[in-house]
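Continuing the batch. This is chain 6 of the set; chains 1 through 5 are on the previous pages. Same settings as before, nothing changed between runs. Recording input and output for traceability.
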Amino acid sequence: MIPPVLRFPFVGFALLLISAIAVVAVQSGQLRSVSQEAEIANAALAQRAAIETQTRSLRVSRTGSEVRISIIGSLAELLPDEVWLEQISVEDERLTVTGFGPSAADVIRILSQLGSLTDIQFGSPVTRDNTQNLERFRIDATILGDVG
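Output for chain 6:
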């Protein structure tokens, strides 16, 4: 039996302990709920980051395509009718142009007028096609900017 003098403090302590246990239980439930919300938010953020990365990649690819089309259009405008191109290829930032013309050096000069090209040089020795009286050339250049 508990002496009457200690009953009130004992009951008070028991109520305090029960209240503390109840607070811990409620806080634990809230912590689980917040933890679940945080996991959902992290998943949503990861999905958004993946979408933004894909969007950025598509923008870069579009910009690269625009640069390529611009270069091909500029070549068509600038090169004289006597120059004809056999092949134009773009890989990464490298442009390769092969074809025939009266003067391969003139083709280099024309390419140097394009502000989007740098490091313009012959990719192989220039040869003369005596049957057509034209020079065969392969010219390599670096495209400035991102081409995707």
